[in-house]
Amino acid sequence: MNELIKQLVEQAVRQQLIEPEDTVYAQNRLLALLGEAAYNDPGMVESRSIPDILDAMIERMVASGQLAARLDEKERLAAELMDVFVDRPSQITSTFRRLYGESPQQATDYFYQLSQANNYIQTKRIAKNIQYQAETVYGTIDITINLSKPEKDPREIAAAQTEVVESTYPTCLLCVENVGYAGRVNHPARANHRIIPISLQDEPWALQYSPYVYYNEHSIILSQEHRDMVINRQAFARLLGFVAQFPHYFAGSNADLPIVGGSILTHDHYQGGRYEFAMDRAKTLSQFVLPDHPDVTGETLHWPLTVVRLSSIDSAALLDAADDVYQTWLTYEDTEHEILAATNGIRHNTVTPIARMRGERFELDLVLRNNRTSTDHPDGIFHTHADIHHIKRENIGLIEVMGLAVLPARLLSELEQVEQFVAGTDISMAPSHQEWATELKAAYSGQDVTEYVRQAVAAKFVRGLEDCGVFKQTPDGQAGLDRFLETVSRQVAGDRR
């Protein structure tokens, strides 16, 4: 264990988590956490990554009987060990703000590197994800088969049933009380977690990174107040305010309704990061003018979902225009395209908004969403339809909207079976894939089978995105979108009168 302790401390110095003068202190804190009586310098040690060292320490603790072989216990110890090397929140915030004074990018570079080095961002697990790009009619999209989040340990599930945990603290996974929290059987360890306080529209918000990043610098922007997500004018203003503060990042929000929203609707939050998505590169399909907003440029996009893109050098003018589009959409109905604004007083219309800077111009995409269901489509008329569910059934949230498919881990083994079937091996596979695999096999012409199936997965995902578009990429669908935009102009003009 002394050798592992030295490896971890030396790596912490290399990663600039601590200074060389902190070595003895760090060694002693690790001794206490690992139940070791004394430290004896083992001399020269090999250099290993921090996640690998932590895994070795934890497995040694399990083998000796000092630690239960449960995922939650292992993660708790790993977070506590790394907390030895992480500055207090006030010190990190002070460093971030000092660097922000030099440039916003320097500040986020520092915080992102810190969040990786201290093992809060699970770099070793993320590396397990299958990631590739595929060419589609809408451009190059990203595909990820998500293998990074560990499956529940059966022992952890059993413990959760027998251990009485009445605590509601922290209130949820996004609340600021998670900073430094030890964790428990039904709540992840956060001892090494830090946030950066920021202000949006004179409200206290915070910036952190996702522990399982799906793209470069995948950020979470969260309200310091625990409250439900809401999409409204204030949300648009916060997104524009964020990209004004961090112009090298985008910021977007999941929609605020079930089916078309994200997985956490009970805490007001957005996502951001430093990444160009396929939707960012989407071609302009048409341009339009909102007469009451001469300083704002409007575009529709060649994209499977319905996107209204607004841009202006004036963020206040852009905010006014976006609110007019949104307010019109809230009550807009088009029965020809199965769009109803509400049923029995339950709202269906909302948007997925995304803000970014392009040079000096602010840009805000409003992706029109509707969460109606029907007998034919009980999971959602504008959700992936049943023939897509063998690939993707989960909600189509912000990340998928922009063209990054986050697909379930089950597909790793299932697609290997599909590949073997397509290539001619007599093999049984998941029944849900049988019809699709048979179609692929009939069209297969001997090319690399893995690449062939991967491209087919991308095509399926894009088809699912097309299901989510309220106005389809057809002449009829575009005519419907044009009528909506005309309604925006008429309604705004009527309001002005």
Automatic annotation (TrEMBL):
Enzyme Commission identifier(s): 2.7.7.12
Superkingdom assignment: Bacteria
Keywords assigned: Carbohydrate metabolism, Cytoplasm, Galactose metabolism, Nucleotidyltransferase, Transferase
Domain (Galactose-1-phosphate uridyl transferase N-terminal) ranges: 18-227
Cell compartments where the protein resides: Cytoplasm
Catalytic reactions on record: alpha-D-galactose 1-phosphate + UDP-alpha-D-glucose = alpha-D-glucose 1-phosphate + UDP-alpha-D-galactose
Metabolic or biological pathway: Carbohydrate metabolism; galactose metabolism
InterPro entries: GalP_uridyl_Trfase_II, GalP_uridyl_Trfase_II_CS, GalP_Utransf_C, GalP_Utransf_N
UniProt keyword Cytoplasm present: yes
Keyword Transferase listed: yes
GO molecular-function term, one example from the UniProt record: nucleotidyltransferase activity
Residue ranges occupied by any Galactose-1-phosphate uridyl transferase C-terminal domain in the UniProt entry: 244-437
Family per record: Belongs to the galactose-1-phosphate uridylyltransferase type 2 family.
PANTHER family per the UniProt record, alphabetical: DUF4922 DOMAIN-CONTAINING PROTEIN, GALACTOSE-1-PHOSPHATE URIDYLYLTRANSFERASE
Protein name: Galactose-1-phosphate uridylyltransferase
